[in-house]
Amino acid sequence: MKERAVQEDIMLFQIFLNDTQIPSPSVFEVGLTLDDKLVCTCPNYKGRGKCKHVNLVQLRMDMNDGIYEPSLSKDVTEADVAKAKLSTKHNREFLLKFGIPEVL
Ligand SMILES: [Zn+2]
How many angstroms is it from 18 CA to the middle of ligand 1? Predict the structure, then answer.
């Protein structure tokens, strides 16, 4: 339950898949906290407070006026996008469904 509450305070930006054969967890999520801080669920971020996933998202935001635009499936409709804006929970469900994960 605690885990879940934390996630709902984070606006998910991008899903990454592991690029190695290391066993689970192999799916990492980068998102923005209520304090405008980028965080990641990977072991490197947990250990050092930084990682290549956060670095990449930050770089893209810096090049795009601070806005992150994830790659999305072509099946996305305007209604889906509108629904995603309702809450961080809706946004997360939207990205899990339509966001294109990147391997890094
Ligand atoms: Zn990471």
Answer: 10
